[in-house]
């Protein structure tokens, strides 16, 4: 049995099934598309999971550059869009017409069948990303924007000219010196630059 404040809440079997259910739900992020790119004309945009993966990598790198905690930033980035299994990826233009539940409310529902330690841990991560003002939170938000900028640049290379707006608007929202420096360095670079560097 799992106990919370002296009350029997659920059996171990129920908790395990609840946790696995949450993990299956997170798998939907591998299939959910980042719908804002459809507005830019991208026919087969990246998935939410693909965005979150590179955001976590960028976040860890930016944290190292900024003197923040890389593991904490990567954790914040990993969970930052997990709510989109239930509400989808609502593009900025759609937010003018919709009132979606807060990410914290969605998260609470998502983890309601998991053990208390898991539920409280995930809710704390999401709450901090949404409301915190630490350097780690600032870096995590910059990582999200820088990833969008880099993805936009890759779509530009593929011929989606409307992606330029995403590149410009996300770059303009960057705040940390390191994110600004990387955004500046990315301008004019090819997404295959890394390959040419090592192959000569």
TrEMBL record:
Its cofactor is Co(2+); Mn(2+). Coiled coil: none annotated. It catalyses: a 2'-deoxyribonucleoside 5'-phosphate + H2O = a 2'-deoxyribonucleoside + phosphate. Keywords: Hydrolase, Metal-binding. SUPFAM superfamilies: HD-domain/PDEase-like (SSF109604). One of its GO terms (molecular function) is 5'-deoxynucleotidase activity. InterPro entries: HD/PDEase_dom, HD_domain, YfbR/HDDC2. This is 5'-deoxynucleotidase. It comes from Streptomyces malaysiensis.
């Amino acid at each position: 049995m799992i106990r919370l404040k002296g009350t029997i809440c659920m059996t171990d079997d129920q908790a395990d099934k609840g946790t696995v259910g949450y993990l299956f739900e997170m798998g939907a992020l591998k299939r959910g598309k980042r719908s804002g790119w459809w507005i830019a004309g991208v026919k087969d945009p990246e998935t939410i999971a693909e965005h979150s993966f590179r955001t976590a990598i960028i976040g860890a790198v930016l944290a190292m550059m900024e003197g923040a905690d890389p593991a904490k930033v990567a954790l914040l980035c990993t969970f930052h869009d997990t709510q989109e299994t239930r509400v989808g990826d609502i593009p900025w233009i759609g937010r003018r017409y919709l009132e979606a539940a807060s990410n914290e409310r969605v998260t609470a529902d998502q983890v309601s069948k998991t053990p208390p330690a898991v539920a409280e841990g995930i809710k704390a991560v999401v709450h901090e990303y949404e409301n915190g003002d630490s350097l780690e939170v600032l870096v995590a938000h910059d990582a999200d924007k820088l990833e969008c900028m880099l993805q936009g640049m890759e779509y530009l290379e593929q011929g989606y000219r409307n992606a330029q707006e995403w590149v410009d608007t996300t770059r303009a929202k960057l705040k940390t010196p390191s994110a600004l420096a990387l955004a500046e360095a990315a301008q004019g670079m090819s997404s295959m630059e890394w390959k040419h560097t090592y192959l000569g």
